Amino acid sequence: MITEVTVLQLQADCDLQNPESLLSKAVRDILSRKLHEEYASFGYYGQSIKQPKTAFTFVGSDAWDGEKHDAGSLIDEGSIAPFQNLSGVEKVRTVMRVQFQPSPDPSPALGNHASIGVTEVVFYHFPSDLTNKEGIMGSIDKMRPVLARSEALACFDGWAMEHTTNDAGEKSQTYVNVLGWVDVDTHMRFQDSDDFKQNIHHLMDIQELQLLEMHHVKLHAV
């Protein structure tokens, strides 16, 4: 399974969290078509809680597994076009396809778990000509035991298969992490813990890291 992650930039005051809003209905329609046309297993959408101009969709499908993925290119326009003309969407910032680990199905962190109230979505952006993925994975792996000791209910991560566009509009290689928490306070309690503070340097000291984005998102299933 491969998960397609879309990052949307919304106009001010758009409410994607209200299921009755026109934008919510339009996004659900797009994802419903994808679920049908791509034989997808799941679809989720939501809006960043603290940065409400940023929104996300997640669609997981086995249909993309056999496709060729060009690591030096951006994803094809066919995945971007359905969102471009939606009222309330300023632009489609980027679309990426990710094969998550330890399982390729990240839906337990997206909401397919009764206790999850919020999903932490993290993007680690690296230069487009990055070659040291093995070294970076060594640093990321040092954080896995720390997360295992936390109150995170689910955690999945993986590299975007194509180049993406980061928040600064730059082409980059991106590592994606999605974690399911009971609520924002539970995650913040973890970030205030000595265990987190004593180990976060494993990530922040990665020399090639250009930009880190973190969002809390309440995702809705389609």
Descriptive keywords:
single chain, 222 residues, alpha+beta, 9-stranded antiparallel β-sheet
Write the layout of secondary structure elements.
Blueprint: E1 2-10, H1 22-37, E2 40-48, E3 54-61, H2 81-84, E4 89-98, H3 107-110, E5 118-127, H4 133-141, H5 144-148, E6 154-159, E7 164-165, E8 171-181, H6 184-191, H7 194-199, H8 201-204, E9 211-221
Antiparallel strand pairs: 1-3, 1-4, 2-3, 2-9, 5-8, 5-9, 6-8, 7-8
What does the model show?
With 222 residues, this protein is an alpha+beta fold. The protein has helices at residues 22-37, 81-84, 107-110, 133-141, 144-148, 184-191, 194-199, 201-204, and strands spanning 2-10, 40-48, 54-61, 89-98, 118-127, 154-159, 164-165, 171-181, 211-221. Strands 1, 2, 3, 4, 5, 6, 7, 8 and 9 form a nine-stranded antiparallel β-sheet that branches. A hairpin with a 5-residue loop joins strand 7 (164-165) and strand 8. It is globular. It starts with a strand and ends with a strand.
Instruction: State which percent range the strand residues make up.
Output: 25-35%
The N- and C-terminal alpha carbons lie at a distance of: 18 Å
Q: What Rg, in angstroms, do the CA atoms define?
A: 17 Å
Q: Summarize model confidence as the mean pLDDT.
A: 90
Shape: globular
- Helix count, per DSSP? 8
Which bin fits the share of residues in helices?
Answer: 25-40%
Structural class, from secondary structure content? alpha+beta
Characterize the main sheet. 9 strands, antiparallel
| Total beta strands | 9
Helix-strand string: EHEEHEHEHHEEEHHHE
Uncertain spans, ≥5 residues at pLDDT below 50? none
